[in-house]
């Protein structure tokens, strides 16, 4: 469809999608068209534009969200390498292993012995785990599990670790038979 | 400009359409289209444009082909793993239609190179996958007065429009004046 629009513009034939936005939903197999009008207050093409040359788009798109985002958490002290986790799991001091990925990811692969607690519904005060239990968290790359770790820390948990690089690095360094996604 | 005998036969189903015809096919051959992105959207876009006989197709993409791309970025094959996507797309297009000129820009589109690059083409086709690039493309297309054929996909939903303020239409910013908050942007 994008190619068709290009070709129509080149030929000068038909009715191009100027001023119209096509919304397509593959799951519903539905097409919806909405009119888009020129906005007189548009910062680029409006009557009093403020964007008069190319700007810093990275800064433009990373709009800060508020105070809680500004607080930077240094998680490096909690990181545990895949090899270190493997040693720990092979020892007698088994930690609770929490997988905070979503169920569809759990279906692709998981570390044996882990418990699924998706971050999307994660509640640090409803884990059913006592606060002095050693816990190791993991996700796909180690970012989501670090935010779950922060929540647990706030809720009073004291023995926390995060699998550095997530299950993806685990697959690379510890379990080569595990599928990567 | 004239079509070769091979091209006449190749495009014969175009040439017999009143909406295209010989004049239209020559317009396609003279046209210069810049595609941004040689991924999920860029693959089919480039393959159709190349097959249809767009004379000059510019492709800008700085990424390389990864195994996780293959299920949807259909211009790339197993043998392309690790190769620049723009280069891989170029080969796919030329294999189907060697009459097309494909200009590879194996680099990231930035505010420093966008205007100069856009000037070399008639139409811009956005198949990028992030908001920074989308706003950059919109603004650069506005400043260079090039029509922008914009497409985007997220999961199972897609959007398509043509932004051409030079002919009185809206731009991408008229539709979305601000990018979504960073925390809502899927990575
Ligand atoms: Zn605008």
Structure overview:
The complex is a heterodimer of chains A (181) and B (187). With 181 residues, chain A is α/β, with parallel strands linked by helices. In chain A, the strands form 2 sheets. Chain A has a 5-stranded parallel β-sheet. Chain A folds into 2 domains: 2-53, no CATH class; 65-173, 3-Layer(aba) Sandwich (Oxidized Rhodanese, domain 1), CATH 3.40.250.10. Chain A is elongated and about 75 Å long. In chain A, 28% of the residues lie in helices and 15% in strands. The model of chain A has no long low-confidence stretch (mean pLDDT 92). Chain B is α/β, with parallel strands linked by helices and 187 residues long. Chain B has one domain: Rossmann fold. Helix content of chain B is 36%, strand content 18%. Chain B is built from 8 helices and 6 strands, in the order αααβαβαβαβαββα. A 6-stranded mixed β-sheet of chain B has the order 3-2-1-4-5-6, sandwiched between helices. In chain B, α7 (131-144) links the parallel β4 and β5. In chain B, α4 packs parallel to α5 (85-96). At the A-B interface, α1, β1 and α2 of A face α3, α4, α7, β6 and α8 of B. β1 (20-25) of chain A pairs antiparallel with β6 of chain B. The structure holds zinc ion.
What is the CATH topology descriptor of chain B?
A: Rossmann fold
Task: Encode the helix/strand succession of chain B as letters.
Answer: HHHEHEHEHEHEEH
The CATH homologous superfamily of chain B is called NAD(P)-binding Rossmann-like Domain
Q: What is the structural class of chain B?
A: alpha/beta
If interface size is counted as residues with C-beta under 8 Å from the partner's C-beta, which chains form the largest one? Answer: A-B, 48 and 61 residues
Number of domains of chain A: 2
Strand content of chain B: 15-25%
Q: Domains counted in the coordinates of chain B: how many?
A: 1
- Any low-confidence stretches of chain B, pLDDT <50, length ≥5? none
């Amino acid at each position: 469809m994008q190619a068709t629009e290009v070709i129509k513009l080149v030929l000068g034939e038909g009715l191009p999608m100027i001023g119209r936005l096509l919304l397509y939903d593959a799951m519903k197999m539905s097409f919806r068209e909405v009119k888009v009008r020129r906005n007189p207050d548009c910062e680029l093409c409006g009557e009093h534009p403020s964007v008069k040359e190319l700007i810093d788009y990275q800064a433009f798109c990373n709009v800060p969200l508020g105070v809680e985002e500004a607080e930077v958490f240094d998680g490096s002290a909690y990181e545990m390498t895949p090899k270190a986790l493997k040693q720990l799991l092979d020892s007698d001091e088994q930690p609770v292993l929490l997988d905070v990925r979503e169920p569809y990811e759990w279906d692709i692969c998981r570390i044996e012995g882990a418990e699924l607690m998706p971050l999307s519904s994660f509640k640090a005060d409803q884990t059913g785990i006592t606060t002095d239990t050693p816990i190791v968290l993991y996700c796909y790359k180690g970012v989501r599990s670090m935010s779950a770790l922060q929540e647990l820390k706030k809720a009073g948990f004291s023995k926390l670790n995060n699998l550095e690089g997530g299950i993806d690095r685990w697959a690379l360094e510890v379990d080569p038979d595990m599928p990567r996604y | 400009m004239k079509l070769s005998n091979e091209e006449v036969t190749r495009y014969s189903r175009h040439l017999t359409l009143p909406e295209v015809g010989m004049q239209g096919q020559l317009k396609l051959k003279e046209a210069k289209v810049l595609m941004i992105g040689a991924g999920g959207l860029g693959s089919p876009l480039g393959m159709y444009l190349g097959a249809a006989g767009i004379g000059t197709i510019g492709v800008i993409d700085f990424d390389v082909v990864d195994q996780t791309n293959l299920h949807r970025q259909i211009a790339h094959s197993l043998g392309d793993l690790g190769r620049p996507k723009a280069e891989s797309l170029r080969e796919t297009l030329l294999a189907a239609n060697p009459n097309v000129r494909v200009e590879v820009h194996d680099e990231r589109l930035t505010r420093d190179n966008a205007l100069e690059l856009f000037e070399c083409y008639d139409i811009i086709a956005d198949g990028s996958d992030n908001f920074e690039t989308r706003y950059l493309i919109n603004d650069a297309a506005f400043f260079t007065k090039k029509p922008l054929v914009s497409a985007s996909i997220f999961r199972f939903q897609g959007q398509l429009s043509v932004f051409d303020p030079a002919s009185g239409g809206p731009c991408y910013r008229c539709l979305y004046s601000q990018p979504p908050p960073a925390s809502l942007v899927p990575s």
